[in-house]
Amino acid sequence: MEKRTRVIFLGTDWESVETLRVLHEDERFDVVGVITTVDKPVGRKQLLTPSKVKEYALDSGIEVFHTEKNVDRYQKAIDIFKPELIVCKAFGELIPGFFLEYPKYKSINVHFSILPKYRGAVPIQKAILEGERETGITFMLMAEGLDEGDILEIYKEQIQPNDTNLSLRERLVKKSASVIGDVLQRWIDGEITPQKQDSSKATYCWQKDISKENAEIKWEVMEPEYIERLVRAMIPWPIAWTTVNIQGNTKIMKIFESELLEILSDNTPGTLYSENNQLLFSTKNPNLSLRVKDLQIEGKARTKERDFLNGLGRELI
Fold first, then answer.
1. Backbone angles phi, psi at 194, to 5 degrees
2. Which residue from 181, 152, 189 is spatially nearest to 23, judged by alpha carbons?
């Protein structure tokens, strides 16, 4: 058997775990160490909780290391693990250049967009919000600039009309895990020629774009098609929301599932009403209404459209 390539893996959350698992189980690679974020307080009791990547690594006997955004600790990681290749997926730290350049086979990042479009933190949500028909997975050499490295391979993926951030992300995670081993091996074997990005075509997306504030539905301003996409892009967090008047009280309504229907409404945009046992919002387009199929009223449990109309929303019927 040929010598296995020594790999350090950098990652944090559940989507990183799948990539790590595949590499760990691939006999072509030897994952000698994992770098991930430190344990963080979670929940009401603020219990210190390890990242999903750390949990998997410890269960699998892989050494875990924390850099904590400290340059000296990145150097220490090199001294300890002496990697031939670094692989990164959703890590969340700015990484110093000397660390990226150290390995024989450099450092490779898995990014969920078709670069150079949507460089940055939230490319899946941004693609849905902008009404893109496709997105993809870019395997790229890492550079100190934000997602500016040379491209090794791109795999495209269609965005389905009902895709949420979560459903699309799950497909991309599965697809990237299925191909990463072969992409890395072809790179190691010298079968891939890196391609420069055309930075003049670059667009960017930031974590702040997907915030609770930006998840508010603005009925008078937003096109109905954008609102429907907003609902899908904000799953599973922060969830699109609006304010409604329920039994004389103003409450926040979170919307988990919706669809646009060709239903005529002369109501003011954002008016909540019911027609044919459907829960609807009027939009700025009088010919289109947003049907809400899954929702949560502030202070109440998440509920389906029918149950809401039979309960809190019965005055709308």
1. -60, 140
2. 181
- Of the three residues 86, 105, 124, the one that is the final residue of a domain is 105
- 140 phi and psi angles, rounded to 5 deg: -140, 155
Contacts for 62 with CB less than 8 Å, ≥ 6 apart: 24, 31, 32, 33, 34, 56
Q: Which residues of 58-85 are buried (b: 16+ CB within 10 A; e: fewer)?
A: eeeebebbbbeeeeeebeebbeebebbb
**pTM above the 0.90 mark?**
yes
User: Does residue 109 contact residue 140 with C-beta atoms inside 8 Å?
Assistant: yes
DSSP 82-100: --SEEEEES--S---HHHH
The number of beta carbons lying within 10 Å of the beta carbon of residue 22 is 16
In a 13 Å sphere around the CA of 10, the CA atoms on its Cβ side amount to: 26
Backbone angles phi, psi at 284, to 5 degrees: -70, -15
Domain hosting 9: range is 1-105
What is the count of structural domains for the chain?
Answer: 3
Residue 258's identity, in one-letter code, is: S
**Angle subtended by helix axes 165-188 and 14-25, to nearest 10:** 30
203-236 per-position pLDDT tens digit:
999 999 999 999 999 999 999 999 999 999 999 9
What does the pLDDT read at residue 317?
Answer: 65
Task: State the pairing for strand pair 204-205/119-120.
Answer: parallel
20 in the same domain as 69:
yes
Q: Give dist(CA 139, CA 177) in Å, integer.
A: 12
Which residues face 49 on adjacent strands? 40
